Amino acid sequence: MKAMTYDGPGRRIWKDVPDATVESPEDALVRVDAVTICGSDLHILKGDVPEVTRGTILGHEAVGTVMEIGTSVSGVKVGDRVLVSCVGGCGRCRFCRANQDGQCLRGGGWALGHLINGTQAELVRVPFADRGLHKLPETIPDEQALLLADILPTAYEVGVLNGRVAPGSSVVIVGAGPVGLAAVITARLLTPSRIVVVDPASSRREAAVHFGADLAVPGPDEVRAELEAYTEGLGFDTVIEAVGIPATFELCTSLVRPGGTVANVGVHGSPVTLHLEDLWIKDVTITTGLVDTYSTPTLLRLMGEGRVNTEGFVTHRFGLEEMQDGYDVFERASDTGALKVALFRD
Ligand code: NAD
Ligand code: ZN
Predict the structure, then answer these.
(1) Which ranges constitute the DSSP H helices of 2-66?
(2) ipTM for the complex?
(3) Do 332 and 250 sit in the same domain of this protein?
(4) 218 lines ligand 1 (CB under 6 A)
(5) Which residues form the Enoyl reductase (ER) domain (predicted)?
(6) Is the pLDDT of residue 112 over 70?
(7) Among 88, 137, 223, 298, whose Cα sits 20 to 30 Å from the Cα of 100?
(8) CA 114–ligand 2 middle distance (angstroms)
């Protein structure tokens, strides 16, 4: 089969590799029908995730068709059209039993450092298939379903739910990449009174308004002006960090009201400063986390009912064989305007 492999920092190769197979009774073998490229794939390509070794297949988001199942798989059958989730734990360890599949002690899924071969291939082996695969209804097109693999549950669980967005609350989302925009879409489900997005890129601000933000501003000065105007200087109920750099984390902690929540979603590659000299008196809750995908069945149902709508999210489409071109476009997102790049089997 053909697959996109990591070949050391800065090098990716689309090449022939041995076919993926069922290796354990809990595995399923899935033919990849549609797949996307995620910002985390770019982190791995840069060499930021040293656990990933040369030759590993990239990718952790896909829609496909079940070709074969292990002897103990009962949740899906051959021929089913499925979502391949970025996380799917063993279901038995102490973390999975608490719905923390992202922390699975048996290493379920791809999110914890891509230690197993990924989805950017013609075939993918899915471990713990009963938890990592979700049957898709016909009503959800591949292009929308792809966003349920990682982006939507990440934004909803780690941003919106950890951030305690509630009816009538005021919400700031810093960063309007795929994750920040998915936070806009899923925050709306909880009927906050105002969603303000901060992003220096005008195309991202436009997208934020398209997906339901009430206001999108370029930087700290404008969002502080909004804090004065909308919250009478008190601060916002929920502030979601969806960038992953020290400056934006510090901005988030400066925007939250006493008793409010800062939900960090961004992956940080360097230390950040926690201003406890300001925060200690404010009763602030700060949350962090990796997506667990416990919300995927709920989001799938809401998408099927048209209440989670991601039309317009995929900006560029390619054939699976054009994987290198897809990466070229995604890597130059600031020039190409790429939000999400999707690749489809012919
Ligand atoms: P992205 O890089 O595509 O988007 C980041 C956005 O932040 C861009 O639109 C950019 O213009 C904006 N930005 C840059 N500097 C900014 C600033 N100073 N102020 C405001 N906005 C700024 O990233 P993404 O794919 O949307 O992911 C966002 C973060 O979430 C990343 O750090 C990613 O690694 C992380 N992530 C976390 C999890 C998890 O489980 N916790 C899962 C997936 C992704
Ligand atoms: Zn587990």
Answers:
(1) 39-46
(2) 0.98
(3) no
(4) no
(5) 10-343
(6) no
(7) 137
(8) 16
